[in-house]
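Suppose a colleague, Dr. K., hands you the sequence of a protein chain of 311 amino acids and asks what its three-dimensional shape might be. Before reaching for any lab equipment, you can write down a predicted structure in token form. Begin with the sequence itself:
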Amino acid sequence: MTLSERLTPRELELAQAMHAGGTFATLAKQMGLSPNSVKIYASRIYDKLQIKGDSPRQQLVLMLEREKNGAAQVTQPSACAVLLTADRPEMTQQAVGCFRAQTYENKRLLIWESGERPACRQYCVEDPRIDYCFTSGYPPASVGSLRNDANYRAHADILIHFDSDDLSHPNRIAEQVALLQSSGADCVGYNEALFCTSYHHALIQDNEAYLYRNPNPSYAIGASLAYWRRTWQSKPFPDVSNGEDTVWLSGLKVCGVSGMEPDPRLICRIHGKNTSQKAYDALISAPKCEQVEAQWKRVPEWDSYCRKVAV
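The predicted structure, expressed as tokens, is then:
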């Protein structure tokens, strides 16, 4: 039985409005109802559809998406982009925009913010697909520990690193889900990606593009990882802040592919607040170190592209 057969026309109208996003106060104004009437209608909808437990609105959204996309949606793995951030509200806003532009339907976003104060809650308002959590403490938790805490909260078949200082192509999630399914790998990611500078330095200027390439097909850049939740459950991240992804990948079946075809799937920004200074150190060392220079290449033909999308 379809939702239109289980709900009254007015209830179906509200359910579709809830799927589109908006607070109950906003929906009440759109439908000419009082906020209390909207809550009553919503309660009836949940009862009729047997929606129980936590996050009933999110469950409703998933039901509507499944019906909209037919049987294919039911078998489509759920994917959650996990966004770790701390004191980066402007960059986080851009990353949220990248998530909303993703073409993959069965997706969610979890913003896991740490730092001095909660600054990014505003970006999940009126979008039931986005969850938010702020955590603080001293001494601050390691990146590995934060990833584990966030992954535990992210209820999806596939978990995807969606760092706040990176920009993702609209097809990224769809392509990485498909690659996970077809490759049989535990984890997939990019072994080639575009990096863009975002601060001044004597040797590095703003909006300079660099191409990082590691030809090893069993290697993937940490910021680009997508993996099955069951893989993480069997092997959580180590409790460290630098190189937690490299340590974690050891022993897993990894499928690394280019993130530059047909155009950049991921732009990693190098700036003054990077958790790891590895990329910055590499760019400074490249002119002096043949091994580093082989992996990092200055690509001025991509400068204008970075300037356009990474502002």
